[in-house]
Amino acid sequence: MRKAYDRLEWNFVEDRLEWNFVEDMLLKLGFDRLWVDRVMSCIKTVTYNLLINGCITGNIIPTRGIRQRDPISPAIFILCSQALTAVIKRAKAAGNLHGVRVDIWKDNWIPSLPNYKVQSQRPVDCGLTFVTDLIDPTSRTWKTSLLQRLFQLAEVNAILKISLSFFAEEDIQVWGASKDGRFFMKSAYWLLAKKEEEDQRSRAATSKVRNWEMIPEMVWRRIWKIDTLPKIKAFIWRTCNEGLPTGSGLHARHIPIDPVCPRRGFEKEIGDHLLLDCPCARAVWHGSSLHYSPPTDVTPTIVGWLGSWDVVFRHDKRLVHEALSKSQVADRDSPPHVWTVPPTSITKINCDATLPQDNAKGGLGLVLRDHAGNQRKFVSIPMCFNSALQGELLAVCAALRLALELGLTQVQVESDCREVVNYILDHSYTTPIDSAVVLGDIWKLSASFSSISFHYISRAINGVADALAKKALSLVCLTD
After folding, report:
1. Is 70 part of any domain?
2. What is the CATH number of the domain that holds 352?
3. 354: which strand partners?
4. The pLDDT of residue 16 is above 50
5. How large is the angle between the packed helices 217-225 and 230-240, nearest 10 degrees?
6. How far apart, in whole angstroms, are the C-alpha atoms of residue 408 and residue 59?
7. Residue 78 counted as domain residue
8. What share of the chain is helix, strand, coil (3-state, %, to 5)?
9. Cys staple from 92: which of 56, 74, 87, 97, with CB 3.0 to 4.6 Å?
């Protein structure tokens, strides 16, 4: 594929691809010559005219590039990106790629900021250039006082939420459009498709917009990630898309039916009313284990309920998952509901994390007990992190570090987050970007113990660790 590699000319400013390169790349990927000819015919037959003073004039015939907003353009662009991926892999195998030194002021390195980089201006007398200059090499922590002098408060908080490895390693580049940082064709296609969708929305800003078009992308993603039956996911999706056969919906489709709710008598029967505001629905919610009560001061909506999960998930993600999964068959491998003492000579560590609604600062809680059930140590640690998963992993990592500091060699670690235990025990799981470093540290620290095991327990018997995590929210430093 050297011919195709040599013609790799990317210009991200103009989104340009050479036609000859596209053709060579498709052939090298094994597509039939006839099929390639037809695709190239679609690409090359485009012409442009100019609109000057209301008159169409000129006839421009391009010699390169793929058309923006053409349905096949994203697919062609992504297929050709395989050449770039192959070049990078070949260079890495040959030892020509090394760790990246990330520039503080120029590079994209802060995942939780909208544009991934700092907006603060570099001070005139500042000699700091690389991100490594902001890290204490001894403690492997951020130099908080330095960050506060250089950056805005929002940037400082975002930087502090980046987990640092306790083991000095080279920086690497990741693909920001995927959850785990790896490049996949579908993630690139999703990125291009999303950009095109945003462009279309901006062009149609003055036209009539359907309600579902205003629903945030986060809500759609959350629907499909619910741990429940597919038909329930489809039902919620149809509700948000105004696709339920409600009285109002059928009436709008010219079906002779009363659009008024037969139970309420004076309000239209729409999806939001049917599932949230109707007296029958409110009675169901009142008895739900989610402890959710639809608001009465405003009209409740399904989209608003799903959007509120951002707060509910941070406060108690496990409770939400447990409530929703009750529509499935009960888990036969349910955790024990009574805390048990560890075997003789083994110390059991219970850990937990909490993240408040404002997402400003979280807390970790640890409690160590011996084989007699006596508490040997309990710790509250205030810490910044982005997600509940990252916090739970940080709690486990802190537990291992504390155990090593105390000279313990045989431990059992318990967490009430099943997802965390799965990540630790099964290395084949794909880890989110913000948690990969922490998980790697857990694996490395685990090798320092002569005996170590990880277990999932129910939230009901992890109350001490949970209380310690919540206590950390009011602290400014670690306390035990």
Report:
1. yes
2. 3.30.420.10
3. 363
4. yes
5. 160
6. 78
7. yes
8. 45, 10, 45
9. 97
293: domain range? 214-327
| 8 A C-beta contact, residue 30 and residue 104 | no
- Write down the pTM of the prediction: 0.58
Eight-state DSSP code of residue 217: H
Q: Does position 330 have pLDDT exceeding 60, yes or no?
A: no
> Which of 356, 355, 380 lies closest to 367, judged by CA?
380
d(CA 480, CA 478): 7
479 is a domain residue: no
173 DSSP 8-state letter: -
- Counting the structural domains of the chain, the total is 3
Measured distance CA(46)–CA(70) in Å, rounded = 11
Host H or E run for residue 321 = helix 302-324
Q: Which two tokens stand for residue 199?
A: 């462009």
The neighbour count for residue 136, using CB atoms within 10 Å, is 12
Q: Looking at the DSSP assignment, which residues form a beta bridge with residue 411?
A: 347, 452
Is there a single domain that holds both residue 315 and residue 371?
no
By DSSP bridging, strand 451-456 and strand 410-415 are parallel
Instruction: For residues 368 and 298, state if they share a domain.
Output: no
Amino acid at 388: A
What does the pLDDT read at residue 366? 96
Task: Tell me the two tokens of residue 25.
Answer: 């790349």
On the CB side of 110, CA atoms within 13 Å amount to: 22
Angstrom distance (rounded) from CA 67 to CA 263: 54
Q: What percent of the chain has pLDDT over 70?
A: 78
The upper half-sphere exposure of residue 16, i.e. CA atoms within 13 Å in the direction of its Cβ, equals 9
Tokens matching residue 121 = 């201006």
**Both tokens of residue 315?**
């406060």
Q: Which of 35-49, 381-395, 421-435 has the highest mean pLDDT?
A: 381-395
DSSP at 329: P
Beta bridge partners of 380: 365, 479
Pairing of strands 410-415, 347-354: parallel
- Output 371-375 pairs: Cβ under 8 A, ≥24 positions apart: 371/341, 371/342, 371/343, 371/344, 371/345, 371/346, 372/341, 373/341
